[in-house]
Amino acid sequence: MYKKLRMKMTLFCSAVTGVILLAMTLAGLLAFQNLLDANDAAVHDKEVDSVLAYLEKSRVIDYGQIATMANPRFYTIDLYENGVLYSYDPEEEKQEMMDKIIHRAMEHYGFDVNHPPLGKGITKPLEFSFDHKKTEHLVTFASVPYPYGTFCVVISYARETLERQILYLYVVFTVIDLTALLLLLLFSWFYTGRMLAPIEKNRTKQIQFVASASHELRSPLAVMLSSADALAVADEEDRTGFHEIIKAEGLRMSRLIHDMLSLASADNQTWSMHFEKISLDTMIPEVYERYHMLAKRKGLKLQITLPDSGEEPEVFCDGQRLEQVLGILLDNAVSYTPKGGIIYLGYEKDGARWKFWVADNGPGIPDEWKERIFDRFFRGDISRKEKKHFGLGLSIAGEIVRLHKGKIWVEDREGGGCVFYFTVPGG
C-alpha cells in the first residue's frame, strides 16, 4: 500500500510539474521563434534594400557585385526587362524554383513580371512566402526604374539558417526538458518518500499498538473467563477468591483501556488541557504526601528536595496533568525499586524553565533502552511478572510533557539507579 501510494504520488507530482514545465518551455520556444523570425526578416529586408539601392544607382548591372551584396547560398535574384531574363545565378534548379515563383505571382496575385508597375522610384508591389523542398522562401518583387525603362527584380531568400536555428532550439529544449523531467521524477520519488515516511511510521506504530493492546487485553480477559467458569462450579468457600480475581483483572483492563484512550486522544489532538498558574510549593508537597505512605508500605523511603531561592515557584500548566506525570514516574520508581531503597523527588529553576526529577537507587536502565522506554507497550524485561504496568505510563507522561512544550528524558544516577527528568516553561 505504501509503495503504491508513493508511486502514485510520484507520478502525479511529476506529471503536474512536467505539464507546467512543458507549457513554459513551449511559451519560451514560441517567444524565441518569433524573435528569431522577426530578426531574420529584418536582416532580409536590409539585404533586399541594399540590392535595390545598388540597382537604382547603377547604369550597368554587375552581377558579381550583386553576388557580394547578397549571399548566393541563400539568395536567388532574377532581373526582367521587357520580358527578357537576366540572372547572376545559372543553376538550373534555382531557375526552376524562380519559374514556379513567377507562376505563383501570376496565378494567385495577378502580377506579371513582364509588365511591372511604373513609378518614379523603387517600389515593392508584391511580397509573399513560398515553400520549396520543405524550406520557406521569402519572395520580393520590385520595380526599379532606369533611364531606358523599368527592371522587374525578383528576389528569393531561403530561410535555411533560421530553420536550423529553430530546430536546434527545439532539440536543446527537448533535451533540457527530458533531463528536467527525469530529475523531477527522482526528486518526487525521494520527496514523497520523505513526506510519507512519518505516515508509514505512524501506521506501523498503530499496527503495533493495536497488536500490543490486543495482547494485553487478551491476558486479563482469559483470566476473567477462566475464573468465571471456575466460579460456576466452585465450592462456596472458594467463590470469594475467584470473585476477587475477576474484579482485579477487570480493574486492570479498565486501567489499560483508560491509558489507551488517553493516548488516542493525544494522537487525535483532542486531549483537553486546562492551563493556569500553579504554585509548586503546594503541588509538589501534595504529591509527596500521596506517595510517601505507599513507598513506606513497600519498605522504601521517599525524600523531597525543594529549591532554596526566594522566587515564587509558579508555573503556567495543567496542574492535574503535571501531577499525573509525577505520579507515573513515582509509581514506576515504587514498583521497580527493591525493598530498602530510596526514591528522590525534587524540582529547581533551570533558566527560563522548571526542571523536575524522580530518582531511585534501583537496578537502573540499560543504555539501549533509554530511548525506547517512552515507546508504547515497551517493557525491556519481557520476563517481568509485574501486572500493574503495561508500558503505557511513560508514553502518556511523554505526551503530557510534549503538550506543555517541554522535554522528558532519563539518565543514570551516580551510585546506581536512574533519574527521570522533565522540564516545562516557567510561569
From TrEMBL:
EC number annotated for this UniProt entry: 2.7.13.3
Catalytic activity from the UniProt record: ATP + protein L-histidine = ADP + protein N-phospho-L-histidine
Keyword Transmembrane appears in the UniProt entry: yes
Family matches, as CDD domains: HATPase (cd00075), HisKA (cd00082)
InterPro entries noted in UniProt: HATPase_C_sf, HATPase_dom, His_kinase_dom, HisK_dim/P_dom, HisK_dim/P_sf, Sensor_HK_Regulatory, Sig_transdc_His_kin-like_C
Domain Histidine kinase: 212-427
Gene3D superfamilies (UniProt xref): 1.10.287.130, Histidine kinase-like ATPase, C-terminal domain (3.30.565.10)
Keyword annotations: Kinase, Membrane, Phosphoprotein, Transferase, Transmembrane, Transmembrane helix, Two-component regulatory system
Superkingdom of the source species: Bacteria
Pfam families found in the cross-reference section: HATPase_c (PF02518), HisKA (PF00512)
Transmembrane segment boundaries: 167-191
Name of the protein this chain belongs to: histidine kinase
Species per Swiss-Prot/TrEMBL record: Blautia hominis
